[in-house]
Here is the input.
Amino acid sequence: LAKTTQPPSMEAYEGQEVNVSCSHTNIATSEYIYWYRQVPHQGPQFIIQGYKDYVVNEVASLFISADRKLSTLSLPWVSLRDAAVYYCIVTGGSALGRLHFGAGTQLIVIP
Amino acid sequence: EAAVTQSPRNKVAVTGGKVTLSCNQTNNHNNMYWYRQDTGHGLRLIHYSYGAGSTEKGDIPDGYKASRPSQENFSLILELATPSQTSVYFCASGDRGQGDERLFFGHGTKLSVL
Here is the structure.
């Protein structure tokens, strides 16, 4: 499983766009990139996934560098309810469905 | 919306006692997982299952057993609970498929072992 590195915390004001980066320098060709978020007293919630280039859904967008070693989760117009821990996970192939969660990035939203 | 339900939501147990945490999913997913979450450790995989009757060890299986009697149900069993097993436990379900390793999590069970 490829290891991921994220900043431990970030701050943003309400209404700002937030970009959370994730480094996965040892990502394998069989692996995909997933982002989850977790608010207190709840389980993690899937946000978005991608393999290469750019992916967008109703919640967020995901940019993946050409060499796939870096990905950036973009949250447009953050609100207080976006305050959470964001996890970047890389998995696939021989991982057999196991996801390894690291420490994540704590997003602090300032009113 | 995929649904994973854990019970109980909160549990207080005594050291040496037996604890069973239950998980039910209505997603018809093949795979189910048990994690624990402690401050400073993120989520750690305890046991997982590929289907009814199967259980596999995760990264921290010591002191835990798992049971998957049906597609829908996956239990985590602490035969002899210890204070070090005080934690928040999350169950998840998902379907293994290349490019789709999404997991759906329950709300968690807070276990305190005194």
About this structure: The mean pLDDT of chain A is 90. The CA atoms of residues 11 and 108 of chain A lie 5 Å apart.
